[in-house]
Write a structure and sequence with these properties.
Helix content is about 45%, strand content about 15%. The strands form 3 sheets. A 4-stranded mixed β-sheet has the order 4-7-6-8, covered by helices on one side. A 3-stranded parallel β-sheet has the order 1-2-3, with helices on both faces. Strands 5-10-9 form a 3-stranded mixed β-sheet. α1 crosses α11 and α4 crosses α8. The longest helix is centred in the C-terminal third of the chain and has 20 residues.
Length: about 270
């Protein structure tokens, strides 16, 4: 069954949510955005940054359901990268970005965006009215969701020393905003290089670098029991929380239960 197209809601705040996505994960991006939009009283514009695989068919599929969606193509991203982060001055960030797609979420979105960003992963679904997220659009601020444990891929003491401040524990990059922080790219280049030199690459390096950026910020934390990372099977089936972030073994709940719940709700609304 196809997802029914959304009717464009009334305009409220100039609300946008940024995703890194492409041909492999566009279905999850779509379901995440639809699950948020059907709970919002105002229009939220998804801005999809090309992960390197965004083709015209994918854009067409997304635009059919969310006609006001926006896309940031790879050519624009590359142009901005060459302007802001030239290879010669930022070799570690540029090389790691090429090898490690997760880092494009941190780098590409902030290189191309001029507004305060709210960034989300695609493998998430909203099930209850997200007060904290909708309030963010009214007054953007530093915000992040909490993980089940601290997963940065590098020793916390090492990251604290690099950051020159205490890095928050259990930060999860599924949903976050740095508020109006302007990234210091020279600092990020240094952190990235030191991590690689000292311990090598990590699957969690994007999360580590993002957590380090929060070390000197006063941020709001989304309540861990309402915005759940890795819901267990009971919660995955019953969906009592505001948000699920389906990482690791909880992906089973997404494919067995989560997306079906969103499709059913949207179909009932359209019918």
């Amino acid at each position: 069954m196809d997802m029914p197209a959304l009717i464009e809601p009334r305009l409220g705040p100039q609300a946008k949510v940024n995703f890194l996505s492409g041909s492999r994960f566009w279905h999850q991006t779509l379901f995440c955005m639809v699950s948020l939009q059907i709970l919002s009283p105002f229009k939220i514009t998804p801005v999809v940054f090309d992960d390197g695989s965004l083709d015209q068919d994918t854009k067409t599929n997304l635009s059919r359901v969310i006609p006001w969606i926006q896309f940031i193509d790879a050519s624009l991203i590359e142009s901005r990268l060459d302007s802001v982060l030239p290879n010669g001055a930022f070799p570690s960030l540029r090389q790691r970005r090429r090898d490690y797609i997760h880092l494009r979420k941190l780098i590409d979105i902030h290189v191309c965006s001029t507004d305060t960003c709210l960034i989300m992963d695609s493998d998430m679904l909203f099930f209850r009215y997200p007060h904290a997220v909708l309030e963010w659009f009214e007054s953007p601020h530093a915000l992040y969701m909490q993980d089940v444990s601290t997963a940065y891929g590098y020793p916390l003491d090492f990251l604290n020393e690099l950051a020159g401040a205490t890095v928050p524990e259990r930060l999860n990059v599924g949903l976050y905003s740095l508020g109006n922080l302007e990234l210091e790219w020279d600092q990020l280049e240094f952190w990235c290089r030191r991590q690689l030199d000292a311990y090598g690459p990590s699957y969690f390096q994007e999360q580590a670098l993002t957590a380090m950026l929060f070390a000197k910020l006063s941020a709001k934390l989304l309540p861990r029991r309402r915005y759940i990372v890795q819901p267990d099977l009971r919660e995955g089936r019953a969906q009592t929380a505001v948000l699920h972030h389906y990482v690791a073994q909880s992906k089973r709940s997404y494919f067995q239960y989560g997306w079906r719940r969103i499709l059913e709700e949207r179909t009932n609304m359209a019918g």
